[in-house]
Design goal:
heterodimer, A: 306 residues, alpha/beta, 2 domains, 4-stranded antiparallel beta sheet, 12 helices, 13 strands, elongated, disordered C terminus, B: 259 residues, mainly alpha, 10 helices, globular, disordered N terminus
């Protein structure tokens, strides 16, 4: 199916600093694409370029087959939340939605539907945004993004400030949106959150794409985690089979093979298996840190200190 | 928190007609008063308009209590405060960061700027109409000096009102910061006037053509002739039109960011 967001060689330079460097990726319908990267990697700049807030130095982007500014009444096609705090503090939450609904030409009843959908009560809707918690602002921002019943969502850090119930709610909402054929581009620092909801990943570091693909592809080959009665014996068994294996500090080891093979190897070595699973718990975090290691700030700081 | 219910998430790229201009105007109009700051500002403008006229009636001699004098008084707070409304209509998009939403819902920024200009002009004309209505009522009640407001005087008031609001919006667009734009709006023309006064006769021709206080004086005194109109046009080309064009150019190119 033709992608709903297409980013082609998008580049943004500020003076001699290249914030986004020939970034290309697509977001197909029916998917949640997680957009990951360290602080300052260029995620927000890329998203702003897609919606036309930041002029690209070179390269193009298209949403639903058109450059964003060419979309008529774009709120009806694309829901955008780039910064939940970017609202007038003196305006009520309800008023924020009313302005959006008026502009898009939607009935006033849509405002109440959306407040209800995101769990903001009538009294909360009448409060000024300046008195909202970050979590409430995120809910309001999601309501605003969904106002026009769009088929594409572009969300920058929407889970920031949400409580665990809110994060769960957001996950269900995005999953449901994608399952109905919508496309979601979602940036987040909350890797567990991205792992739970995304089915595709785009990882960016220092303005460049360092990896992209389906989540399963990217996490496959990260190996399995196994903890047995004797880690040393298990490591030896893995070595005999020619697999990469690494001891984990708290016990157990990660092995570069599939589940069945590792289980069989443990059985063959006469070991009692205590834990055997895909190394996906820490998988995305590990993948993220590995992929962005060259670009992470921590590395830069260490070098500077050395 | 209700269950998730999104009726429709069509993958088909449905194209929609662009947002009609009157709807953009309706939204921009609403944004002028739907915040606490906007509501206060409009309230203060209304109260100050009424107050200056009432105080004027109390302190003026019987012969001076003309409708035109009342409106001249009402114009003072309006000429000071309405441009601030125009400034804030633009700068709030940056200082309150609402531009992030405004310019994603209408990415053609020129249309948003046009809507803001039209709406601010309409509001300032409406404010003048309210002044005339209120002044007329007050005059009918206690006025004594005569109905001297002819089409010429009304025209002068309208031009003064329009130049003020346009200058406000222009400065907002140019500086994109409420504080900077407000300070520049009040301080720059004044500093310029003072500098010209210090210059005295040697710079008299500059003063005549480029000092806003000098060029708009005849407007409020209703002594506009061809030369005065020319002076007014030149001064406002520099103080209103130029900032407006530069400001539009800046906003069309600016990066809209959250921080």
């Amino acid at each position: 199916m033709c992608p709903m967001i297409t980013v082609t060689e998008l580049t943004k330079t500020y003076g001699d600093h290249t914030a986004v460097d020939h970034v290309s990726f697509t977001v197909p319908p029916g998917s949640v694409t997680g957009f990951l990267g360290p602080n300052g990697a260029g995620k927000s700049t890329t998203m702003r370029m897609i919606v036309g807030l930041t002029p690209a130095t070179s390269g193009t982007s298209a949403v639903l087959g058109a450059a964003y500014p060419e979309l008529g009444n774009p709120g009806l096609s694309v829901g955008v939340l780039l910064d939940a705090s970017a609202q007038h503090v003196g305006r009520s939450g309800r008023e924020v939605l009313t302005l959006g609904a008026t502009l898009m030409g939607l009935p006033a009843a849509r405002v109440d539907r959306m407040l209800d959908l995101v769990g903001l009560s009538g009294a909360e809707g009448r409060r000024r945004v300046g008195d909202y918690s970050l979590g409430m602002r995120q809910r309001l921002g999601i309501a605003h993004a969904l106002l026009g019943d769009p088929s594409v969502l572009i969300l920058d850090e929407p889970a920031n400030g949400l409580d665990p119930a809110g994060i769960r709610w957001m996950r269900d909402l995005l999953r449901d949106f994608a399952d109905r054929g919508g496309a979601v581009l979602l940036s987040s620092h909350l890797l567990a959150e991205v792992q739970a909801v995304a089915d595709r990943l785009v990882v960016i570091g220092r303005g460049r794409i360092v990896a992209s693909g389906t989540k399963d592809e990217m996490l496959a080959g990260r190996g399995v985690f196994v903890r047995t009665s004797d880690d040393a014996a298990m490591a030896a068994a893995a070595a005999r089979a020619g697999w990469d294996a690494a001891r984990v500090a708290d016990g157990g080891l990660t092995v570069g093979a599939d589940l069945d093979a590792v289980g069989d190897a443990a059985f063959g070595a006469g070991l009692s298996v205590r834990e055997l699973r895909r190394a996906d718990g820490a998988g995305l975090e590990e993948l993220f840190l590995t992929l962005t290691a060259d670009t992470a700030r921590e590395r830069v700081t260490e070098e500077a200190a050395a | 928190m209700s269950t998730v219910s999104i009726e429709r998430a069509v993958p088909a790229p449905a194209r929609h007609p662009q947002v009609p201009f009157p709807r953009l105007m309706a939204v921009e109009l609403r944004k002028l008063w739907d915040t606490r700051a906007g509501m206060w500002l409009l309230g203060i403008i209304a109260a100050a308009t009424a107050a200056t006229m009432i105080i004027g009636l109390v302190v003026m001699d019987r012969g001076d209590r003309t409708l035109d004098n009342l409106l001249g008084l009402a114009a003072v707070p309006q000429n000071i405060l309405l441009p601030v409304l125009g400034i804030m209509a633009v700068t709030a998009e940056w200082s309150q960061r609402t531009g992030l939403v405004t310019f994603t819902l209408e990415p053609r920024r020129g249309r948003v700027i046009a809507a803001k200009l039209v709406v601010n002009v309409l509001v300032s004309v409406a404010a003048l109409a309210v002044s005339i209505g209120l002044g007329g009522l007050l005059y009918a009640a206690v006025g004594t000096g005569g109905w001297t407001l002819g089409p010429g005087e009304a025209n002068d008031l309208l031009v003064g009102q329009l130049l003020g609001i346009l200058q406000g919006v222009a400065f907002g667009l140019l500086f994109l910061s409420t504080a900077v734009a407000v300070v520049a709006f009040f301080a720059l023309p004044t500093v310029w006037s003072v500098a010209l006064q210090i210059g005295g006769d040697r710079v008299a021709s500059i003063t005549r053509w480029l000092d806003l206080n000098t060029t708009s004086g005849p407007l409020f005194g209703h002594t506009m002739g061809a030369a005065e109109w020319a002076h007014l046009a030149v001064a406002n080309t520099v103080w209103v039109l130029l900032p407006l064009l530069l400001g539009i150019w800046r906003v069309m190119r600016a990066e809209v960011k959250s921080s």
